[in-house]
């Protein structure tokens, strides 16, 4: 094989920038980004070449530049094919939005919108009040408030209601949520004082009662939505806890997290407590995520007693946590779908859950057939799909997928799949690469066949 042509000096940046092989990426990525990649490639070559002064020609340098441009592009969020069987994959954006939702939202996002304008009075209005009213009605609560995510919801509650005062919480609920965030750390940052009670596996009503005192601002109950405890465990029922706290005039806040709405298929598969059921226990406030079992955009949902919700709304810190117009518009659509009983038709999460097993198997067989025709050694296999996203731990849903047998190795195949456009994300277990079809959309299958 002939050695690539070399030179004692590198081509100029301008020569490289005008190379015909860069025309397409200059148009798509822009001159500034391509220029950065050219300089980075020249710097990298300069370090590798050292004093040898033997430079590849422009065409070969451009190959490295194109690889850098592609690597840079792939760092930004982009469409991927989810073959993991995890419905609310936090790393892949949790709940996907439906096309109808996007069409409804885009009409408002591509024009001015009455985000904080009262059309009846012709004056400044309140952001999010309409969707918050619908949320409260959906959950059977007095009032609701929307912030940008559930961690923000918990933080706002603690900061506004318990600054420099005690918050009682069971040791068994001092959990860590995604990204390494821990409830004790959120409590400390909010200005609240942590008061731990009970043990890791046992917390009783008397533990709460003995801890209540003049410095108690509220009782925080945290739903263990990303793990379960079993065996010799006990906790206080939320309804009993609400009654105990009411007798002492102390509010109870239940961080539910998952945001399930019932009745319906999500409750059937997840067995998670619903927002409506949580409010009905008598606790004062409930917090949840909009992009988990609720099936909508990233948002923090706070529902409960009007007096407490208004204290949160008027707290100066609330302004830093308000959702933007796109999240509010998307949430409005999802709330309307739930209220009208059309969630199963309008929300992709619910559509995926409702998919019949025979349809999933048919789709897996279609993929396996395409793979076998392309020379792959694959099998159609049953799967155990999951909710993910810190919801319904250890609950699985029967599904179907395909399993690739070597060669190539599972890790090599997983890498190839991630490098494809669009990237394909599967799972590796027992030395095999797996793709579950439940979390795939109809348009994904043509791309999968192209990859195969």
Structure, briefly:
With 452 residues, this protein is of the alpha/beta class. The chain has 19 helices and 17 strands.
3D structure, described in words:
It is a single chain. By secondary structure, the protein is α/β, with parallel strands linked by helices. The protein has helices at residues 13-17, 23-29, 31-49, 58-73, 99-109, 129-139, 150-162, 183-190, 205-211, 238-247, 265-270, 275-280, 306-313, 325-339, 343-346, 348-353, 357-373, 410-419, 444-451; strands spanning 6-7, 55-56, 81-82, 117-118, 123-124, 143-147, 166-170, 193-197, 216-222, 252-257, 285-289, 300-304, 378-388, 391-404, 424-425, 427-429, 432-436. The chain is globular and about 85 Å long. The protein starts with 5 loop residues before the first strand and ends with a helix.
Characteristics of this structure?
452 residues; alpha/beta; Aspartate Aminotransferase, domain 1; Aspartate Aminotransferase, domain 2; 3 domains; 7-stranded mixed sheet; 19 helices
> What would you give as the CATH superfamily of the largest domain?
Type I PLP-dependent aspartate aminotransferase-like (Major domain)
Spatial gap, N to C terminus: 30 Å
What is the mean predicted local confidence, pLDDT?
91
Label the structural class.
Answer: alpha/beta
CATH fold description of the largest domain? Aspartate Aminotransferase, domain 2
Please give the radius of gyration in angstroms. 27 Å
- Tell me what portion of residues adopts beta-strand conformation: 15-25%
General shape = globular
Walk across the major sheet and give the strand order. Answer: 6-12-11-10-9-7-8
> Which residues form runs of ≥5 with pLDDT under 50?
none
Percent helix, as a range, is: 40-55%
Care to count the β-strands?
17
Put simply, the count of helices is: 19
User: What CATH first level of the largest domain would be assigned?
Assistant: Alpha Beta
Largest pleated sheet: 7 strands, mixed
CATH architecture call of the largest domain: 3-Layer(aba) Sandwich
Total of domains: 3
């Amino acid at each position: 094989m002939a050695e690539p042509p070399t030179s004692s000096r590198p081509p100029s940046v301008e020569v490289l920038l005008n190379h015909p092989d860069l025309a397409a990426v200059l148009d798509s990525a822009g001159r500034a980004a391509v220029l950065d990649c050219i300089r980075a490639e020249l710097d990298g070559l300069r370090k590798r070449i050292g004093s040898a002064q033997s430079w590849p020609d422009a065409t070969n340098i451009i190959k490295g530049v194109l690889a850098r441009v592609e690597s840079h592009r792939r760092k930004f969020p982009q469409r991927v094919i989810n073959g993991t069987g995890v419905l609310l994959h936090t790393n892949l954006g949790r709940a996907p939005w439906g096309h109808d939702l996007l069409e409804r939202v885009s009409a408002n996002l591509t024009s001015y919108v009455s985000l904080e304008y009262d059309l009846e009075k012709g004056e400044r209005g309140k952001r999010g009040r309409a969707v918050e009213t619908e949320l409260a009605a959906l959950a059977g609560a007095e009032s609701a408030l929307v912030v940008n995510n559930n961690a923000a919801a918990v933080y706002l509650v603690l900061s506004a209601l318990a600054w420099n005062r005690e918050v009682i919480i069971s040791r068994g609920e001092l959990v860590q949520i995604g990204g390494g965030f821990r409830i004790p750390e959120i409590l400390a940052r909010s200005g609240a004082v942590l008061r731990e009670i009970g043990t890791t596996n046992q917390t009783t009503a008397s533990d709460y009662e003995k801890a209540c005192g003049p410095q108690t601002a509220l009782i925080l109950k945290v739903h263990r939505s990303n793990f379960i405890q079993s065996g010799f465990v006990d906790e206080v029922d939320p309804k009993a806890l609400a009654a105990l706290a009411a007798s002492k005039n102390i509010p109870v806040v239940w961080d539910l997290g998952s945001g399930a709405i019932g009745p319906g298929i999500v409750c059937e598969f997840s067995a998670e407590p619903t927002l409506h059921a949580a409010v009905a226990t008598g606790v004062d406030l409930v917090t949840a995520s909009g992009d988990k079992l609720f099936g909508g955009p990233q948002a923090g949902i706070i529902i409960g007693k009007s007096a407490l919700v208004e204290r949160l709304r008027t707290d100066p810190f609330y302004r830093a946590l308000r959702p933007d117009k796109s999240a509010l518009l998307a949430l409005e659509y999802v709330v309307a779908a739930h209220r009208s009983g059309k969630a199963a038709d309008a929300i992709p999460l619910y559509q995926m859950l409702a998919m019949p097993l025979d349809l999933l198997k048919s789709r897996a067989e279609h993929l396996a057939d395409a793979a076998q025709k392309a020379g792959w050694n694959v099998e159609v296999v049953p799967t155990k799909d999951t909710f993910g996203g810190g919801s319904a731990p250890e609950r699985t849903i029967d599904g179907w997928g395909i399993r690739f047998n070597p060669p190539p190795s599972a890790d090599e195949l997983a890498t190839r799949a991630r490098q494809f456009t669009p990237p394909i994300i599967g799972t590796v277990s027992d030395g095999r690469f797996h793709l579950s079809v439940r979390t795939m959309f109809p348009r994904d299958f043509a791309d999968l066949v192209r990859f195969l």
